[in-house]
Fold this sequence. Notes:
5 strands; globular; alpha+beta; YaeB-like fold; about 45% helix; five-stranded mixed beta sheet
Amino acid sequence: xxxxxxxxxxxxxxxxxxxxxxxxxxxxxxxxxxxxxxxxxxxxxxxxxxxxxxxxxxxxxxxxxxxxxxxxxxxxxxxxxxxxxxxxxxxxxxxxxxxxxxxxxxxxxxxxxxxxxxxxxxxxxx
Length: 126
């Protein structure tokens, strides 16, 4: 059964964007709920094809703020669906000004996560 884990970087920025970009945050939250529902229905991450899902390096997905209302800012919510642990990591949310750094930070998170998982597998082999 899939679970959601929100990272501290996401929670910190989400509070700020909720004040300044309320409609965009509502749309991103709805898109996250739709993505999570698809996972819980049994779809694999590559099978989830929606207009609001964008593929980034290392399996990271960016969910945009498409949906109802006027949009002042193009927000992207970066997530990582870890199939091994059935965990959907909600990594960080940002806009165009932070996009490059956000993608880099998310890639580093995934690389470290996979290293840790590999290390755990190697320990269990003994």
